Amino acid sequence: MNEIESMHTDLLRCCGRLALESSLFPLAFEMLTRALDREPTDSNTLLMLSKAYLLSGDASSVIRMLVNAINTGVSTIASDSRVWTVLALCYDQLDGFEDSLHAVTQALLLESYHTVDPDLHVMQCRFFLKQGTHHYPLDALLPYFDKMLESVRMSGSTPNVHVEALVSRAQLLYKYSEFEKALIDLETAMALLNSKPEYFKVGERLAKISYTSLLASTLQFLANRPTNSLKLVEDAISSYPHTAKSVQPLILASGMMNSILEKDLASTLDRMVLEEPYSAKGSSFLMNYIIARILLQLDPVHNVYGAYGYYQRALNLNISKPYTWISIGSLYLRLGQINDALSAYTQGSVLALESSQAAEQT
């Protein structure tokens, strides 16, 4: 009889897994819940049901289910690093930094040094970066990031994991103004992206190239090397067969730097005007704002109305940026619209003050 019951449970679990793989979530919930009712301490069923909840966007239910399972005291659940890893991801989705860090640390402790999944070290370091580093000195955090890279190297991880680890440590070093050390990590990451393209999906590789180039460009600019900064961006634009998604952040950066350096303004404007209609929601505001600036730099008299149109588009996309209001206030002043200029300047000043006060409270 016990053998028949066990076969029944296995059948429910198998059906639940197949339903989950086919995105038949109601059926997956039914099958897996029934399997778990029959065998409440089975980690595999818990994890499959957790996946079903996560795919349905319900991290809270996963946390309740896994915490209750751990609290039963069953050693096979509490000692399963996969359970703690899923818990860490769920807490992270709900911005529970301390709980997510505790869970991923517990997962790391449950795996031996030589078999530890380097992805867990990467996850732990990503949690530190996401939380913000202002509460910790660099000396307190850097050992975690060094350990992450050591784990990646020792495990022979694929280049995509190695790139993720290098960029993560570069982000940490950037936050503490260790620009030269961060640039070394980014150069190594770019070398891997260029020499091992077969380990990345095409879109993933281009996105990583774009981000890594932008971060390196930012570091060069902060290190007072604006020419090197601009060259990194222009090389990244011209050297790869980009998608619209991967190239737009680079075009934005090129536009901003050329505007600051007052270099190649006409060709920069042409490129941005062509790209603007296809710009993603997140970048469309800046695209319009920078086009307006460059128009005024090229001809502050004849381009004033064209620049006004792009500023208005930028405001329609995002009214919360103080600098847009200040810029459009200056434009109103050029047009002799004094009352409109004062109104725009006032709005920009209020937003700047609110932003400053919010920053002081964090």
What's the structural blueprint in terms of helices and strands?
Layout: H1 2-21, H2 25-38, H3 43-55, H4 59-71, H5 75-78, H6 81-93, H7 97-109, H8 118-131, H9 138-155, H10 159-175, H11 179-195, H12 202-222, H13 226-238, H14 244-261, H15 265-275, H16 281-298, H17 304-317, H18 322-334, H19 338-361
Helix pairs in contact: 1-2, 1-3, 2-3, 3-4, 3-6, 4-6, 6-7, 7-8, 8-9, 8-10, 9-10, 10-11, 11-12, 12-13, 12-14, 13-14, 14-15, 14-16, 15-16, 16-17, 17-18, 18-19
Concise structural overview:
This protein has 362 residues and is an all-alpha fold.
Number of strands: 0
Low-confidence stretches: none
Mean pLDDT: 90
Element string (H = helix, E = strand) = HHHHHHHHHHHHHHHHHHH
Number of helices: 19
The radius of gyration is 26 Å
Distance between the termini: 62 Å
Strand content: under 5%
Structural class by helix and strand composition: mainly alpha
* Biggest pleated-sheet summary: none
Shape: elongated
**Helical content band:** over 70%
Tag the structure with descriptive keywords.
mainly alpha, 0% strand, 362 residues
Can you offer a commentary on this structure?
There is one protein chain. With 362 residues, the chain is mostly helical. The protein has 19 helices and no strands. Helix 15 runs antiparallel to helix 16 (281-298). The chain has helices at 2-21, 25-38, 43-55, 59-71, 75-78, 81-93, 97-109, 118-131, 138-155, 159-175, 179-195, 202-222, 226-238, 244-261, 265-275, 281-298, 304-317, 322-334, 338-361.
